[in-house]
Amino acid sequence: MGGRKMGNLNEIAAHLLQNDDVQLIIGYGEGSAGRVRPLFVSNKKATEKLLFDSRCTQNLASYLYKKEITCLGKPAIVANIRTLRGIIRLAAEHQLEDETIIALAVSTGDDVKELRRLEDMEQYLSEADLQLKKEDKALLDKLNAMTIADRWAFWQQEMAHCIKCYACRQACPLCYCTQCTVEINQPQWIPVASSKLGNMEWHIMRSMHLAGRCIECGQCGEACPANIPIHLLPIRLAEEIRELYGSVTGISKRESCEMSSFQPDDKEKFIT
User: Fold this and answer.
1) Cα separation of 65 and 60, whole Å?
2) Nearest to 214 by CA among 263, 177, 262, 251
3) What is the pLDDT of residues 114-151, one digit of tens each?
């Protein structure tokens, strides 16, 4: 593998900045109330604030294409499995180029691999555990066992709590559109205010936009202030894509999207 194991996270980050290999470190730092927050470090001294532990679950790949970040120079990013899959998927969609990012793949603060190329990240992911969290798998199995009517009732009840804050969109590394459908008002496709119909329309539209693209990081659900398990919608579609086409996203820079590509031997059981 092209990545090399080095010292701890803080030492590696300081070394990269000192050598001008990168101009910015995107990582995690201590926040409030025992939580961690994204941390953006551009000088050697501040790397002392970087940390990585079990609380560091946020997918930091969502920052890589924001103009406020890209203007700061080449970044290194502290990358859990979720973030690495986000980087690979963004590269597959031509949003990131090879060798423009250094990933610091971490399992603990003292076990770091420096991955400078996309193929190094692919190799790392090929040996990683990509399984869903147990609680997500349990709820997904419960939903799959329901009748269509019961499942629809479940989601209607859950969506009633949506306040249309769009935290789900902001947390998702693949919601990078410069203008979202919900921001278009001529014509207005989806009502701005929270409502029974509008809430359902928003979440169905977003899930379909992610079909064949979702990397199953669960960030949209974790970001939801109303604790709606909305991440299970795109994850269920990812499960369907996997069953139909044997495809898993976020593991290869050459992967396509089944919802926007066609093969002569594609299954067509949905055609009546």
Assistant:
1) 11
2) 251
3) 999 999 999 999 999 888 899 999 999 999 999 999 99
| Nearest partner of 207 among 230, 189, 187, judged by Cα | 230
Element (H, E) at 123: helix 118-126
Q: How many CB atoms lie within 10 A of CB 177?
A: 10
Each domain of the chain, given as residue ranges in start order, spans 4-126, 134-260
pLDDT in tens, 25-45: 999 999 999 899 999 999 999
Question: HSE (CB half, 13 Å, CA atoms) of 103?
Answer: 32
Helix (H) or strand (E) holding 104: strand 102-108
Whether cis (ω within 30° of 0) applies to the bond prior to 187 is yes
Instruction: Provide the CB-side half-sphere exposure for 214 (13 A, CA).
Output: 28
**In Å, how far from its chain's centre is CA 50?**
21
- Whole-angstrom distance, CA of residue 6 vs CA of residue 17: 15
142-197 residue pLDDT tens:
999 999 999 999 999 999 999 999 999 999 999 998 888 877 777 777 777 788 88
Tokens linked to 52: 């990585």
Instruction: Look at the pTM and tell me if it is higher than 0.70.
Output: yes
- Mean pLDDT (the chain) is 89
